[in-house]
Each structure stands twice: as structure tokens, then as C-alpha cells.
Design a protein that fits this description.
cholate 7-alpha-dehydrogenase (NAD+) activity; NAD(P)-bd_dom_sf; globular; 3 helices; Sec_Metab_Biosynth_SDR; about 100 residues; alpha/beta; three-stranded parallel sheet; SDR_fam; Rossmann fold
Length: about 100
């Protein structure tokens, strides 16, 4: 694990990442999984890329659940619905910490 995040513990937490299909978002999802995050919602406009990334990460990190969402984050109502759906599906609320 990257030394910057070596003491990060997120066991039992859930997280949402925008732009999660590739690049920084995908790498941050890996970091969250390494820190013990229970589930990660990956949001991206690219549905295929998002699903492929979730499948790849699920194989690498079987203890973390990765859920793909196709969403246009410029649409406030869409993003609010996805956040609510994700949190409700996990029986949790998202922390702002």
C-alpha cells in the first residue's frame, strides 16, 4: 500500500468515487479497497468502462463490493439519486469525513 495511506483504515465504511472507470478514480478505488472499505460506488458516464473496472477490481479485492453507476455528474438530480440509491443499497449513510 502506498506509504501515504499505509495507516488509513476504513473498515465498514462505504464510499462513492466520480470518474471511477479509469485513471485517478480507479486508482483511488484500489486505495479504498486496500484500506478495508466495505463497498465502493463507482460513478462514470462510461457505463461499459465502469462495469469493466468494477469487475476487474472485484477480482483483485473480493472483500470490497464495487457497484457501477452510469451518471452525468453535471446533473444534480441524477447524482443525488445515485448517492441515495447507493447508500440505501448498503443500509448506510455516507459520511462527509
Amino acid at each position: 500500500m502506498n506509504s501515504l495511506f499505509s495507516k488509513l483504515r476504513l473498515t465498514g465504511k462505504i464510499a462513492i468515487i466520480t470518474g471511477g472507470a479509469r485513471g485517478i478514480g480507479k486508482n483511488f478505488a484500489k486505495t479504498l479497497a486496500q484500506a478495508g472499505t466495505q463497498s465502493v460506488g463507482l460513478l462514470d458516464w462510461d457505463a461499459t468502462g465502469c462495469h469493466n473496472t468494477c469487475d476487474e477490481l472485484q477480482q483483485q479485492f473480493p472483500d470490497t463490493l464495487f457497484i457501477p453507476y452510469q451518471v452525468d455528474v453535471s446533473q444534480k438530480e441524477s447524482i443525488e439519486k445515485v448517492i441515495d440509491d447507493f447508500a440505501n443499497s448498503q443500509g448506510k449513510r455516507l459520511d462527509s469525513e
